[in-house]
Amino acid sequence: MAADVRKLIDDGRLTGVQFGVFLICLIMNMLDGMDVMVISYSSNALTADWGISGTELGVVFSAALFGMSLGALFLGPVADVIGRRAMVMIAILVMGLGVFLTAHTHTITELVVLRFLSGLGIGAMLASTATLASEYAPNRVKNLIVSIVLSGYPIGATLSGLVASHVIPEYGWRTMFHVAGIISLATLPFAWFFMSESLDWLTKKQPKQALGKLNRILDRMGHDHMELLPPLPEEAKKNPLSTLFKSGRTMMTIQLWVAFFLAFATLYYLTAWIPKLAGGGSPAGTLGIYAGTAFNLGAVFGIWTQGWLSLKIGLRRSVILFFILTAVLMIAFDFFQGETIILLVFGIIGYGVQGGFIGMYSMAGRAYPTEMRSAGIGGAIGAGRVGAVISPIFAGYLADWNWSITAQFLFFSVPILVVCVSIWMLRSKDID
Length: 432
What we know:
Layout: H1 5-11, H2 16-41, H3 43-50, H4 54-75, H5 79-82, H6 84-102, H7 108-136, H8 142-150, H9 152-171, H10 173-186, H11 188-194, H12 199-205, H13 210-220, H14 240-243, H15 250-279, H16 286-313, H17 315-331, H18 339-367, H19 373-400, H20 405-425
Helix pairs in contact: 2-7, 2-8, 2-9, 2-10, 2-15, 4-7, 4-19, 6-7, 6-10, 7-8, 7-19, 8-16, 8-18, 9-10, 9-16, 15-16, 15-18, 15-19, 15-20, 16-17, 16-18, 17-18, 17-20, 18-19
């Protein structure tokens, strides 16, 4: 008979196979955090080396984010066709090569092209790992597991910041890109040998030899073999992106996309510009690197706390709570004085914005069924990346217009408050 794979995961204990998948997804997201932040940590050294303006730097920041948008929107749904595991391999190769080759650029155009290429891989990776972790996690702890896995992003950003604070002043920004690219590419064999394909995907999409692959994974998890596959869901035969706007999902999809757009706009403004704004005119930008590191270290704890809190008070409420904390601190930023206090505030802002932001991934993962989950998460991320692309460029103009960091924070607190309203209005029985 055909076993219910989802029920096996939801009712069973966590196995070594599942913990292995969660660990690999965590590591992959650490790579994402490193590869995204390496340009921000290098921004002061790059500006001193090439003499580029704030507007040009904003375009460089946005190039990777534009690639991440297209990667999530168009490569994320491809994972619903070729599998989560295959897409992770492709993503590692694309982002690793893009980051490594960035060290050999000599013009703004070359830098923009390679940051875009890196972004394609990063966007596809985020959508695939969030989906894979969601599908291997039992429903009772899904929010927590997805949050822990996605905390790899700020963990990687934090660790790479600590490395950058030593490598860039001593060896230059190009060496930092070499280091990040080599580390990314080195994980490809590890993922190839140890990452398992999604059981949900094998059951719902049924590629060639699906039953044999499914049974090998079930055997490693200590479950009985399946004798046959269940009937293929009708929606599995359709274009994944088109299904997001059918069967009563249109309004939910639009609301999610609006929330992701605004949240991404603020998050990636903060991620890209905090190291530059805090670093001032220092070529090495050490204070800026510390500020970015504090922001991402706070994000790690924020993501873990939000994952735990969502189990207690619900996903929607926990996300709104974290975003309100972020907005209040950004609005009140002018009241904080002193280098140590400012670094602490950056850490708490990271705690709030990333905690709430990662909760939105869990919301998107819960809102859609398996056969369109990568498309659902990828579509929401893709819509969000549009905001992520626009905000660093716009912030570059604000920098050239001599807007203070206080004024910029006040401006970018508004989208976060609108996100709270959009999430509160979102209605889906599966989210909470």
